[in-house]
Specification:
311 residues; alpha+beta; 11 helices; elongated
Length: 311
């Protein structure tokens, strides 16, 4: 049974604070059991590998033990304020990540983005979709949330601050083993705010490639972009491309010869052409996914092995 339920509040696209919700036993009763029954929480986490940068790159689930989240880790503040013992307390109804410590929510500037359900042995994280289809579900009730029923038919509602109770779990922290298991990277990073930093880093990396400060392959081929402005916008519209660019490590790169071998495994229209004399490649809106993919050795290896056919 859920002991406490918290809501994460975003302001200016950043996690600002987490608020403890009033204890509505009638509403919360059976929530955790229902999530398990509906398969929202995996019973077996054996297929989840230990955290590594490739887990974010390849969109795989992962686990990480609390003791492994050291200073400067991207989960450092998250662990310090939420996962460590006695962080979630009835005596501390507001956990602040920004400047605001308010209990009240400004409906014009702030948005509830996720719920945390705390049970006796776990903390469960559920992303909130603020617009959606209501199918005879109760809504969270905390101030501006109302309990609604739409009857027998599916009805699309444009709701300002009321959303169905989320049933998608993106992560779960086991209090006993002190282990965080991330089921969905994209949703999890969205709720803790790290994705916003990746967006900035992705754009910065594109600009560094354009200026020549970043290059491709150990031979250091330069990159020429066709309409970089459009490519930037298209990258930001894709979580996958943003993540791949945002975590790019310029210290790791394959020889151009090996990257070329991977090119032949891809459809012709997606291939990148290499100018060996001038030592540069051309990137456009069509082959941008290929360009971003070949920046990572692990993706090149997967293409060469035949594990993936498109990027």
């Amino acid at each position: 049974m859920a002991e406490k339920v918290w809501v994460g509040i975003f302001r200016n696209n950043r996690l600002d604070r987490i608020l403890l919700l009033p204890n509505d036993k009638e509403f919360y009763e059976g929530i955790v059991d229902t999530l398990y029954d509906e398969g929202a929480i995996p019973i077996d986490f054996q297929n989840f590998g230990e955290f590594r940068s490739d887990a974010l790159l390849l969109e795989e689930g992962y686990y990480i033990d609390l003791e492994k989240i050291t200073k400067d880790h991207f989960l450092d503040m998250f662990a310090e304020k939420i996962l460590e013992d006695r962080c979630l307390s009835l005596d501390n109804p507001v956990i602040s990540f920004g400047r605001s410590g308010k209990v009240e929510i400004d409906e014009t500037k702030e948005t509830p983005k996720f719920l945390m359900i705390e049970s006796e042995d776990a903390i469960i994280f559920l992303p909130i979709k603020t617009r959606g289809i209501i199918r005879k579900k109760r809504l969270m009730e905390f101030g501006f949330f109302k309990k609604l029923s739409t009857g027998n038919q599916n009805v699309v509602h444009d709701i300002n601050m009321g959303v169905p109770f989320p049933t998608t779990v993106c992560a779960i922290f086991n209090k006993l083993s002190q282990r965080l298991c991330v089921i969905n990277n994209d949703d999890f990073e969205s709720i803790i705010g790290t994705f916003e930093r990746k967006k900035k880093k992705a754009i910065q990396n594109l600009e560094l490639f354009e200026s020549g400060e970043l290059t491709v392959g150990v031979e250091e081929y330069r990159v020429t972009f066709c309409n970089l402005s459009n490519i930037k916008n298209e990258v930001l519209e894709s979580k996958r491309l943003t993540t791949r660019l945002g975590i790019y490590d310029s210290k790791k790169s394959f020889p151009i010869k090996k990257i070329k071998q991977a090119m032949w495994k891809l459809p012709e229209e997606l291939r990148i052409k290499f100018d060996d004399k001038g030592k540069f490649i051309e990137v456009n809106s069509i082959n941008k996914k290929t360009f971003i993919g070949i920046l990572h050795n692990s993706i090149v290896e997967r293409v060469l092995s035949g594990e993936v056919e498109v990027l």
